[in-house]
Amino acid sequence: MSALSVKHLLGIKYLQPEDIQTLFETADNFKEVLSRPIKKVPSLRDITIANLFFENSTRTRISFELAEKRLSADVVNFSASSSSVKKGETLIDTVNNILAMKVDMVVMRHPSPGAPVFLSRHIDATIVNAGDGTHEHPTQALLDAYSIRERVGRIKGLKVAIFGDIMHSRVALSNIFCLQKLGAEVMVCGPPTLIPKDIHLLGVEVSYNVREALHWCDVANVLRIQLERQDIKYFASLREYSMYFGINRQLLDSLKKEVVIMHPGPINRGVEITSDVADSKQSIILQQVENGVAIRMAVLYLLAGRRTADVKAV
Fold this sequence. Notes:
Blueprint: H1 17-34, E1 48-53, H2 59-70, E2 74-79, H3 91-99, E3 105-110, H4 115-120, E4 126-132, H5 138-152, E5 159-163, H6 170-181, E6 185-189, E7 205-207, H7 210-216, E8 219-222, H8 238-245, H9 249-253, E9 260-262, H10 275-278, H11 285-313
Parallel strand pairs: 1-2, 1-3, 3-4, 5-6, 5-8, 6-7, 8-9
Helix pairs in contact: 1-11, 2-11, 5-6, 5-11
């Protein structure tokens, strides 16, 4: 088994391109497992994983839990809304109480950027970042890149445009890091108020014109407007946003080329993307969901292998 160069998955920026390729190759094997009548392997039978979600989640939480169960791990689910966090318990106290129950790995989503990094410095368990504030969402970026590779056959040399609320999106940052490490060109497109002013320093193209960006790209990754993170109004109305920055069938048909359509979900149908685009043959949105389980199985499997090796070395 090839090993990762990292003990934790805290963000794409900490991975080497070789790590990403190893994860993809491992996910290929798990995709084959998931196509069998019996979709379960005993790879993590002796590993206990705690899912700590301090923010609401549906797809990511279910995907991780399914990946863990497909690997035969023991799973502990934690929800902040029904825990002692509501009583003022600190993050470290919460996690240490869980680790006292002999948990090996922690999958954590937290509203504060950097929370998984902070935790990794204070506890002896493998940390997987399932999204930290507006910082990173590494497994989403991995499954997005994996889905592009599956559909197009390569990533190197492709032009990928990320549309929408770039400022508040952890998916955008992780995707930029991941795609660039794999040799793709990246453009971001959206209203000027939703694109960070210094984002060009990351080596990405910037456009405020959806038609121009679609003409440029091979793959369009469309993000939702994250109203829950916006403390002020960044555009006049959802109707106006849809009119100037939404992607619809008429717009795609005018391109005279086929652009692959992606979306990390949840979709605001009729706002950033119309149903006839989301459900079209150009869309790989459901493939992204399916690939999420295989990628997360690969992440957990490889990190557990690294942890076992570290323990044996002590």
